[in-house]
Amino acid sequence: MKFPGRRQHRHYFPVDNKNPLTNQVNPSSNATQNYIVGIDQVLVDIEAKVDQAFLDEFDLHRGMSQVISDEVTQRLYQRLKDESLINYEFAGGTIGNTMHNYSVLADDRSVLLGVMSKDIHVGDYAYRFISNTSSRVDLNYLQSVDGPIGRCFTLIDDTGERTFGINAGLINRLHPDSIDESLIAGASALVISSYLMRTQPGDTMTEAAVKAVKCANAAGVPVVLTLGTRFLIEEEPEFWRDFVHKYVNILTMNEEEALAITGIEDPLLAANKCLDWVDMVICTAGKDGLYLAGYVDEVFKRESEYPLLSGEIHEFNRYEYSRPMLLNDCKEPMRIYTHSAPYMGGPESIKNTNGAGDAALAAILHDLSANVYHKNTVANSSKHEQPALTYSSLSQMSKYANRASYEVLVQHSPRLSRGLPEREDSLDQAYWAQ
Ligand SMILES: Nc1ncnc2c1ncn2[C@@H]1O[C@H](COP(=O)(O)OP(=O)(O)OP(=O)(O)O)[C@@H](O)[C@H]1O
Ligand SMILES: O=c1[nH]cnc2c1ncn2[C@@H]1O[C@H](CO)[C@@H](O)[C@H]1O
């Protein structure tokens, strides 16, 4: 994907750091200012293939992310070890994955906030988390704790459905004092998940996350919320609708989470409903691909050159070539939507769908931060006459997001090991065009 940003495609050693339009050397301070911040429960995924009887034995509900006690963890881990069921142990966490994938795609800085064990030993979970995370993810702001980070048992059954058992360790002890307000205020986006609200008495994570969110809102930094798992939302849909309305700009979810928060089954209509509360919506729908919805000011709308599609909304993709905006920046707001089928129809064989949604979000964050980067470096570009949220159109972004998801489907880990090629041999240039 061709983008403004730090990634150098042609030169391993940049021979000219000048901006071709202004012939000025780009001040590096501008480049370093462009980063995104994510908050997560710092976890290592322990992935194993199991059957329903195994889930029943440990009282785990299929498809759910659930917190398990130390005693269940001990027994579960021992069983997996004894029967050599573990495929891999790798850094995880929904926002940790997203920050890592963003940094790999953009070749740029992201900052992860959360906790990290004070004492780290070669081979332990904390060590594994750090060594499986891109060096572009800034871990310097992690808060140290006197104890373990979390473990996420990622149990995959024959149908590919994944069930998460979380042994929390000290993941929820991030303290509000560890939230650096100037770090948040200077970010291109703040990314959080609904999991941050699943805590026990004495935990401080929720308070820390809410402090960061309020700080981002006050500084005009877009807040991005990923819904995590539908069961959490189903428990308190009213609370989540209210939270999203009050604090969130970009809402990311899959179709099940969309149903949980809106009560609407159709992902396009559910995304449309969410536009009552937020500025932009990303709704992944597994084998059916991805829907994006947002706002554009009437004067900046751009008509699609693709065939017009009608689902529950007539010709919903008519203005999908528009770049989305914050509702508040629109004088005459209109709603825009797009849909993309999975890249290449999806892979022939899916290794694992775990983290496919996280990768889609990382691609969209890359586009959003490319816009900030471009604004910082070429402020008087005609591109910024429109105060848009992203660099590309809704249509273009949905293709990029699906492309990034595809890469996760064909590998075991939810974390990308390399960026995407600038050009795709298997694709018409037209696929990326407009
Ligand atoms: N069975 C499939 N066939 C083709 N593409 C798929 C399939 N499942 C997922 N994808 C691709 O991955 C993207 C994200 O998938 P999905 O809706 O499963 O995310 P998710 O449930 O949020 O995942 P996670 O929570 O594990 O990150 C889809 O938009 C699509 O491009
Ligand atoms: O409770 C949780 N908190 C944070 N991350 C979680 C939780 N449950 C599952 N995942 C993470 O979700 C990723 C796939 O999207 C997995 O890598 C897993 O680590």
UniProtKB/TrEMBL annotation:
Its EC number is 2.7.1.73. Belongs to the carbohydrate kinase PfkB family. GO terms for molecular function: ATP binding; guanosine kinase activity; inosine kinase activity. The keyword Methyltransferase does not apply. It comes from the Bacteria. ATP binds at residues 284-289, 357, 402. This is Guanosine-inosine kinase.
